[in-house]
Amino acid sequence: MLYPDPFTKKEAWIMKLTVLIDNNTLIDRYLIGEPGVSYLIQEGATQVLFDVGYSNAFITNACKMRLDLLQSDYIVLSHGHIDHTGGLDALIKLYAEAAFESMPYKRPQLIGHGHVFYDKILDGSISIGCTVPETTLRHHFNVTLSKTPVWLTDKLVFLGEIVRRHDFENRRPIGTVLTPTGKQPDFMLDDTALAYVGAQGLVIITGCSHAGICNIIDHARSVCGQDKVVDVIGGFHLMRPLAEQLAGTLAFFRKLRPKALHACHCVDLAAKIALAGSANLKEVGVGLSLVYA
């Protein structure tokens, strides 16, 4: 059974982000972690489910935290890898069961980049892309695929295709992608993020940052017309990074001076230690809730 956790009128002007899936859980939280990402975002009266992890674990965690996924207005996919889209099948079942049981639910709009459902292959044979066909998803959700930014509310924006500005990022493809024009090295053109325009500056919400975390931040600043960044939460794709990439990223954050960094998912321990020397690094895990003005 799902238990809603609505905003009170006093809280309606804030954004709240709850971590449903990450590789880790917070200490003493009896929740499920897995290699993946899923966040539930509430901005005013609008609810956004950002990524759905690898399995149905995000639904189990949401139930335990009394969060009602059936009231989501949007489902946003950061990119097409299975650790961010693997829960779509479980989500479809959740909505189907709600319909059979005559439970109230919204039909959400699913938003992603135009390439998000392309086949993605690792090591020549291993499929790591979305396992649910786009045609099936269109039966259950209103699907919008866009390379350009889409404003979900007047403060929360889907960033679309990320402009690649920094030459130290996104230098290695992640396997191959099957496009309508043939198989190509996959530089993850579908990788994108969300940005929230808060009273004190931007909050940037990422999945894996295959496009490059610095590229994403600069693109968000350009789209939103605001330079100040308060927080960045999500995967930064710093797993055994090239020395040039790590050095460039650290220099970027020293100059940016965000109030906090919530690096998680695909950031290894060495990179987190390095980031902690350049910015105010905070702990992340399933069960974490963050509130922004």
What would your notes on this structure say?
It is a single chain. The chain has 293 residues and is of the alpha/beta class. It has one domain (9-292): 4-Layer Sandwich (Metallo-beta-lactamase, Chain A). Helices cover 23% and strands 25% of the residues. It is built from seven helices and 17 strands. It has helices at 57-64, 82-85, 88-100, 134-140, 213-224, 243-256, 269-276, and strands spanning 15-21, 38-43, 46-50, 74-76, 109-112, 119-122, 126-127, 142-145, 150-151, 156-158, 176-179, 182-185, 193-197, 202-206, 229-235, 260-264, 289-292. The strands form three sheets. It has a seven-stranded mixed β-sheet. It has a six-stranded mixed β-sheet with strand order 9-10-13-14-15-16, with helices on one face. The model is unreliable at 1-12 (pLDDT under 50).
* Radius of gyration over all CA atoms, rounded: 18 Å
In CATH terms, what is the architecture? Answer: 4-Layer Sandwich
**Could you give a short account of the major beta sheet?**
7 strands, mixed
Task: State the helix count.
Answer: 7
CATH class: Alpha Beta
Give the strand order of the largest sheet, numbering strands 1, 2, ... along the chain.
Answer: 8-5-4-3-2-1-17
Structural class: alpha/beta
Q: Which bin fits the share of residues in helices?
A: 10-25%
Total strand segments: 17
